């Protein structure tokens, strides 16, 4: 199981991740089979894109999920642990 510190990213539901992204101004651009593409802009107007693999049956699911969270961490400029906590507590997922 994929661990980032004490957090196992694999136990987070894909639906919770998608809901979190929607509350943080990410926009689902496209669904391609078992993956979705999400777009946003940072404070300087730069475009960012995330690819969310949605099927845990893929052999590289954990690697893709790790890449997803590392990129989200870069965009939000805060640790993955904080992001995971907000995903697991939907009432706290609104932008700061």
Characterise the protein shown here.
The protein is 36% helix and 25% strand. It is of the alpha+beta class. The strands form 2 sheets. The chain has a 3-stranded antiparallel beta sheet. A two-stranded antiparallel sheet has the order 1-2. A hairpin with a 5-residue loop joins strand 4 (35-41) and strand 5. The N and C termini lie far apart (30 Å). The model has no long low-confidence stretch (mean pLDDT 86).
Helices and strands in order:
Layout: E1 3-4, E2 7-8, H1 14-23, E3 27-32, E4 35-41, E5 47-53, H2 61-76, H3 80-88
Query: Which parts are unreliable, with pLDDT below 50 for 5 consecutive residues or more?
Result: none
Distance between the termini: 30 Å
**Broad shape:** globular
Sequence of strands across the biggest β-sheet: 3-4-5
Structural class: alpha+beta
> Mind summarizing the main beta sheet?
3 strands, antiparallel
């Amino acid at each position: 199981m994929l661990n980032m510190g004490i957090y196992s990213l694999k136990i987070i539901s894909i639906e919770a991740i998608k809901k979190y992204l929607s509350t943080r101004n990410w926009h689902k651009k496209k669904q391609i089979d078992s993956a979705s593409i999400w777009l946003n802009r940072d404070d300087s107007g730069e475009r960012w894109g995330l690819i969310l693999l949605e099927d845990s049956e893929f052999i590289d699911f954990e690697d893709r999920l790790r890449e997803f969270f590392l990129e989200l961490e870069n965009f939000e400029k805060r640790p993955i642990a904080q992001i995971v906590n907000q995903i697991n507590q939907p009432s706290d997922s609104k932008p700061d």
